[in-house]
């Protein structure tokens, strides 16, 4: 298959060659503006080397400006930068005087003072983060969706003694069989007597957040001396294929990420207003919030209920909206449904507006039109009416969705890519680029290369057919595993040297596991995944081998191949059924036909769907792991060349063999 050539003007480029290609890999490339030296600090200023420097300078400069907001009395109410700084100092002092963060020496030469936080986004969460920055504590955030297995693992690995948490999170703690060394719970919210009794019976000492702050106010302690190499946070990644891994991220890592965010086309400024609802334990949201605090912007926190998100947006009217493909897809579907209901002259005008704006977007990267923007006034109001920029990350987004939203909301939507291990930002797109659904170019603190993956037929020497107009030409386009290096790359996994060595090589290259190709403008597009895990559009990781091991035990199933795409919200399954089982069921259902024909019979397909659902639930598969879209393949995988000599499934081959079936299944989404 050929690729259509980009519409981007030839003088525009995301990256430039920094080092020649070596055997088995592409050339090393850097951001065009930072080809000589990767960016480490904001504006290359030496006075900002740690996050303590960063926030202190911002608080001094923006003392009287609104900083953090909470929803109180039916509206968002803000406290100033000076008030945030003061409360963070009081909180940090209270933690210190009450001895809630004891120093441990458990990782190389790092002396860590660990504190946990377990709560949805809220003002106190962020103030605790700033207190930790001021007093040299290391934050360990817990996702509010963590289960009873992951929580004890993290507690035991970190030996955390103190956790700050919401009332809801205490219920999750009570479901855990182990609590490690955790003994101190600092509560953001009041709890009822029954819950308090249960927690005390488990051996927990309970503190009120405001009491810790008040104690610190009466005994203010000097700020800690922090260094670029000080561990700012331990971010635990999703553990769908085993236990979660704790990524050690330093102050220098995050300072460089903030500096690079300033160099993107987001153009963050002090007039920006942001609604924080994506989980703060995720580095993407945390980086954006800290970057906004650096420029003196306002950050408000949603009420903790996604069902109220639209109301929160209307109340706050943010200038920036950040989300993930799953939510953008919902907005897209809702907007398209409303447009389909328009009739008469208005319908003609809307159709003309869509056609015209899509055309200029894809050819000139223009987002507004003085005439046709009027057709989308209601859409703009969905996001508060003053949104100047949208950002998407976590998973790829479909081209049709992002292009439509760009013209409907009348503003740029930047696509970003990064990992926990690269401090969230590694690549981002630009306003000038009319092409969608790719990563854009490297961040100012990042250099990248593609490393050959010969077992999947991806190499730096690959030749791909390119369409230029109506002509098809062959062009060498490097493909391979995306590898990153720079000041934003983490230092390793906490207490896990083996996993660290698998991810960081001896030259400090971070191996992402994503397969990419270099675009004509020096950007990167993801085309595959090296490791046998993938994300759905919800941002959730799926481990297909685990699922297949369960499917293969379902009544009537001989073999299975589970597949998913990051732009889809569900998996599909290719099932090789047992011939005798199908024949028996056909007799019971009084169905006619040979084995091949029966595999296409909807009643037989529905039976397998039902079997998979029942058995999957019995074996603790969640709803995303139970395929509702399946294809019954009469031929064994070995006959189709999908297995190795040791009878292991070759996923990249199976993906090619069943490409048409997969495409057809996604067309009939349930």
From TrEMBL:
One term of GO molecular function: long-chain fatty acid-CoA ligase activity
A cellular component term, taken from the record's GO annotations: membrane
Domain AMP-dependent synthetase/ligase residues, every copy: 60-494
Keyword tags: ATP-binding, Nucleotide-binding
Tree of life domain: Eukaryota
Record flagged with keyword Thylakoid: no
Keyword ATP-binding: yes
The protein, known as: AMP-dependent synthetase/ligase domain-containing protein
